[in-house]
Amino acid sequence: MAKAVVLLSGGLDSATVLAIAQARGFDCYTLSFDYGQRHRAELAAARQISRRVRAVEHREMEIPIGAIGGSALTDETISVPDDGGDGIPVTYVPARNTVFLSLALAWAEVLGADAIFIGVNAVDYSGYPDCRPEFIEAFAALAALATKQGVEDGAVAIEAPLVSMTKADIIRAGTEAGVDYALTVSCYRADDAGRACGCCDACRFRRDGFEAAGLADPTRYQLGDSAS
Amino acid sequence: MAKAVVLLSGGLDSATVLAIAQARGFDCYTLSFDYGQRHRAELAAARQISRRVRAVEHREMEIPIGAIGGSALTDETISVPDDGGDGIPVTYVPARNTVFLSLALAWAEVLGADAIFIGVNAVDYSGYPDCRPEFIEAFAALAALATKQGVEDGAVAIEAPLVSMTKADIIRAGTEAGVDYALTVSCYRADDAGRACGCCDACRFRRDGFEAAGLADPTRYQLGDSAS
């Protein structure tokens, strides 16, 4: 069986990607990062999702990008706004996907994996530069040159199956593949129990996605009326 | 003053790069990684070098690539050979420079730095894929796309001034720039006091470099006769 490292944040997109990778026949090794994010409920969600779908192995790596600062997601002194506004929002975490993919690349090489899956999405996204197809292509080109595996046995594939899908498309595809979205946490301000604020960018994209897909939203909200 | 993040392992090459960056007028922010390497004396060397040359700030980041395994430098069950032999040697650490540069990129973005300096060298090197000019070029292309800084203000430069220099050239350049090589630790099997084994690839390249440069080798060896 071909092996894949799947970046699994515990959110809706990465849970869908994991289901897609499994449906394509990959033995999946899931990888989450503890980077000092304030929405730590997503780490518990990632563990639960990995167990539920019987990933071969789940790893949680601690990395110091939170200590570097520069983002509302890691710095308690910068608040998460309800609306990201124009341009790249303050929830952007400097070089986050580059760091995530680099560590996935290291693990993929040791495993002899054929692919790395990442749930970036350039349509219903928040304007992050490292969610665009050109970023993924540049990382794939780097990966082919960066490792012993790449030089000797051919490059690992960098798979971003959601990159051109709308949130509604993602939710439809995941629902067909059997994803239990009740387990996933997307909210930037989720409480420890994984309940969503209903107001941040991530919550809005998610709620609009379920609505556009015509599917029931299983998200648990902190306040019954905040999602209305 | 322009700012630069300088990857500083504590070895000969990175100490030289730091001197070059300072000579070019950069305010230098030095960055070392604790990745479970067995030659931990290099971390102490990096701290000492940063203090000596008055780097603006020195950071040591802990990263989990050691736990991933796959290298004699991080896995106690794989021994460091005296001679790397043909091909890519067992001292290769999976995706190490990709991970290092990614974290440097994150810090550079938060600092608003203009350049990242790295001491890779493709001449007197050990056959590592991530020490080649094509790897550096691919990372620079990635960095331009990966960050808010790259998209909004232009890409950070990835500077690898040693990439085409021989070890002797590096030692001559560093000596002119005032590097105190007695502070640096290159050996893969250095003891806690930073004394070198004299036999591993890294020791051989270093010793041959001083000889070819016609300069005295200030390296402290574990055994007086091992360097003869």
Task: Determine the mean pLDDT of chain A.
Answer: 89
Number of domains of chain A: 1
The H/E string of chain A reads EHEHEHHEHHEHH
Q: SS-based structural class of chain A?
A: alpha/beta
Q: How would you characterize the largest beta sheet of chain A?
A: 5 strands, parallel
Strand content of chain A: 5-15%
Offer a few descriptive terms.
alpha/beta, Rossmann fold, 228 residues, homodimer, globular, five-stranded parallel beta sheet
Structure described in brief:
By secondary structure, the first copy, chain A, is α/β, with parallel strands linked by helices. The first copy, chain A, is 38% helix and 11% strand. The first copy, chain A, has one domain (3-213): Rossmann fold (3-Layer(aba) Sandwich).
Fold and architecture overview:
The structure is a homodimer of 228-residue chains. Chain A has helices at 12-23, 41-52, 65-68, 96-111, 133-146, 148-153, 167-176, 201-213; strands at residues 3-7, 27-34, 57-62, 115-117, 157-159. Chain A has a single domain, classed as HUPs (Rossmann fold, 3-Layer(aba) Sandwich), CATH 3.40.50. The relative contact order of chain A is 0.17. The first copy, chain A, has 228 residues and is an alpha/beta fold. Chain A is globular, with a radius of gyration of 17 Å. Helices cover 38% and strands 11% of the residues of chain A. The termini of chain A are far apart. Chain A has a five-stranded parallel beta sheet, with helices on both faces. Chain A is built from eight helices and five strands, in the order βαβαβααβααβαα. In chain A, strand 2 (27-34), helix 2 and strand 3 (57-62) form a beta-alpha-beta unit. The interface between A and B is large, with 44 and 44 residues.
